[in-house]
Model the fold of this input.
Amino acid sequence: MTTQRSPIKTAILCISDVYLSRGLQLKAFYEARGDEVLILTPDFSHRHKALIPSKERKDGIEYLHHRPYHKNLSWQRLVGHAEFAKACRKYLEAWKPGRIHALVPANTIAKEMDHYKKDHPDVQLYFDLIDLWPESLPVAHFEKTPPAWIWKHLRNAHLPAADHVFAECGLFAKRIASQTGIQPDVLYWTIAEAQTHSALNLPPDRLSFCYLGSVNNIIDLDAIEAFMTGLSQKIPVDLHVIANGEKKAEMIERLGQVVNVIDHGLVYDPQTKQDIFDACHFGLNFMKQEVVIGLSMKSLDYLKAGLPVLNSLQGDLHDWIETARCGINIDRDHLDKTVDQVLKTMGPENLVLRANARALFEQTLSIQAFENHLNEILTSR
Done:
């Protein structure tokens, strides 16, 4: 239950349609408390690298202009983010919110909202760290370079301006605490649930995996290929792909040499997606070692569906797999050991992992858990 309080105007800043699900969840939360809520987000889709069509634009969202870009790592994208952050500040000068809940990155949003707070000290300012730039870039040793220091400083120097700092996983919270001395509250990412029916349909004579999400520059295709090659030497393997992204064709070409790849394209229907998950033993969550991510979006989808995760990340998900037994953490240096572990989970053990995955989602990552925790944080201040 939420606490009754005087309504205020709340602005939610969201740099990308990839992050918009969190923005919409926050919008629903604040509206349930009686606030007037507006989301500011770009009119350019990061996911599709194109302007967002008018017919796809939602009520309660203001789409501010963002210059186009075609690559995730590009100067056009960084300049566009800085321009968007300034546009947000200008818009808020006219809209006059009582609260700003800013999703960071872009790091320039932290800078612009710090300046806004100085001009409007009564506004409640929350920073919500949903990714760490440059730490999450898959470039070895980049974090130790001067450009990375400047980029990181652009975020960290402005965090003290906030009345409250959130982080979407414990790994991020630890990093920020070590860098700044500020201890964020962990507010895990969540995803909404649709009404679906689960009917397990695992193949009896082969192992089946699913890869969900964008195939981009942070995905460790080398590790996936090495693992699949080793596994396919012992048992036939299916790989269901529900994905898009700049490296999808490369993934299908490389992995198609060693396993049976089933390309589903992009799947939006919840029941269809659940049916695919029900035919798989594990969901793949392989990312490059340099990437600093504690909990990926695809892993939430897997856990929600009760699909165990085959994981390469450190941080929150890694720890949950060790303690809650909801998947398997790969051993990069001894992939043959991971192959043997996976082979042992084809029978009843897979059912145990599936039940544990679903239980973890309900207890820690569901919408209800998200809203309860956020309400506790805000009402305790």
User: Anything to note?
Assistant: The longest helix spans residues 75-95. The radius of gyration is 21 Å.
